[in-house]
Amino acid sequence: MNKLSRIILFLILAISFVPLVRAKDLTLTIVYDNNTYNEELETRWGFSCLVEGLPKTILFDVGGEGDILLNNMEKLGIDPKAIDIIVLSHIHYDHIGGLSTFLKENPEACVYLPGSFPESIKDIVRKVDAELVEVHNPIRVCKNAYSTGELGAFIKEQSLIIKTDKGLVIITGCAHPGIVNVIKKAKGMLGKEVYPKGVYLVLGGFHLCWMNTWQVRGIINGVKREKVEKVAPSHCSGDLARELFKKAYGDDFILSGAGKKIRVKDAF
Questions:
Q1: Distance (Å, rounded) from C-alpha 147 to C-alpha 159?
Q2: 85-87, strands of its sheet edge to edge
Q3: What is the pLDDT of residue 22?
Q4: Does a structural domain hold residue 13?
Q5: Distance of alpha carbon 164 from alpha carbon 123, whole angstroms
Q6: Which portions of the chain are predicted below pLDDT 70?
Q7: Domain limits for position 108
Q8: pLDDT per position as a tens digit, 164-199
């Protein structure tokens, strides 16, 4: 065997032993919600969603009662100390009430909150020397995860956008600025990067529980116009909206509630 043949053989063998890079899944777990999914978990008015599969593990909102948040996490086998980042959507207590209790368990978590929050809330983070990031404008939270920045007028709210190989995944706390407006903002920020896949999933509170059938159908039409593939309305979306979204989306409607786990296969 000549020198060139030995080199070629060596390269073939070397390539054959290089491990294949496997795509990673994105896993979203509803930890706190007023809708029941897992009967073993407590339900209360509020919202919290665990995001796994990114370089950093993110807890989006912390519910209203810290003890219930931690108890539900324990039942789901979630270690509070494994969470790297907390993202708080807006000032309402049912989304931030569990913050102090959670930070006693994990003061190492970095907290992203709207800059418009009062100093009393920011002081909860400072008191345990946790890292605090005040969000005003769109910002990258970690690789493939972004905040919309503060949206809305009276109630300032940020939503979380995750860029996946299947399209954008958008998580909302209450969507006070309007769920369609949040979707448009996300597409304006990152839509070109996932075109033509668009928006794969919108999950969280849609703030429709006080609307009538005619109003909800108008919102559903708006969401469909934005080419959203799947929806998982929870928290403040309301039973009527969940029923109408299910009729409109069929198999692409995801029933959500405390304990629901959504896995986006091969997301990255």
A1: 6
A2: 132-135, 110-114, 85-87, 58-60, 47-52, 26-33, 261-264
A3: 73
A4: no
A5: 34
A6: 1-21
A7: 22-264
A8: 999 999 999 999 999 999 999 999 999 999 999 999
Structural domain count, the chain: 1
Single-letter amino acid, residue 256: S
Q: State the pLDDT at residue 199.
A: 98
Q: Which of 46, 42, 40, 77 is nearest to 61 (CA)?
A: 46
Q: State the virtual CA torsion across 98, 101, 107, 113 in degrees, nearest 10.
A: 20
Rg (CA), the chain: 21
Would residue 232 count as lying in a domain?
yes
Structure tokens at 237: 């979306």
Q: What percent of the chain has pLDDT over 70?
A: 92
- Residue 72 falls within a domain, yes or no? yes
SS3 content of the chain, % helix, strand, coil (to 5): 35, 25, 40
Torsion angles phi and psi, residue 17, rounded to 5 = -100, 0
